[in-house]
Design brief:
elongated; mainly alpha; Four Helix Bundle (Hemerythrin (Met), subunit A)
């Protein structure tokens, strides 16, 4: 359960840090209306936070459910990979020159999120069967 709790805390930290990043930009006057330019730094901040807020809660729930059921070692690894991928995608969004262009960190983070998310779903299903 300790791994699940640490991973959940790290996901929470990412959500709140990215939210603070958006709020700081608003406070510094760098924000006007909602930007639509994929190269705009404020737009990238918003998308990094939004994307994380879309996936982190479900990953956290799956990790906590799987973690309380004496998970196999592969499940613990998947939890860590999921968290690392969420950090990679956030970094890729923030570091990209424009969100309409591919970025390797975004690709790795997205692929890893989907694969680890599916794996965690399977891990939870296996515990109830």
């Amino acid at each position: 359960m300790k791994v699940a709790l640490v991973c959940t805390a790290l996901l929470g930290l990412l959500v709140f840090a990215l939210g603070l990043n958006v709020s700081m930009a608003r406070g510094a006057g760098k924000a006007g209306d909602y930007p639509t330019n994929p190269a705009d730094s404020f737009f990238k901040r918003i998308r990094a936070h939004g994307n994380t807020a879309e996936y982190a809660p479900m990953l956290a729930v799956l990790m906590l459910i799987a973690g309380e059921r004496n998970p196999a070692i592969w499940v613990l690894w998947v939890m860590g990979i999921a968290v690392a991928c969420r950090y990679l995608i956030a970094a890729g969004i923030l570091m990209s020159s424009s969100l309409d262009k591919p970025h390797p960190l975004r690709f790795i983070g997205a692929l890893g999120t989907y694969l680890s998310g599916f794996a965690l779903c399977i891990a939870v299903l296996l515990t109830v069967m």
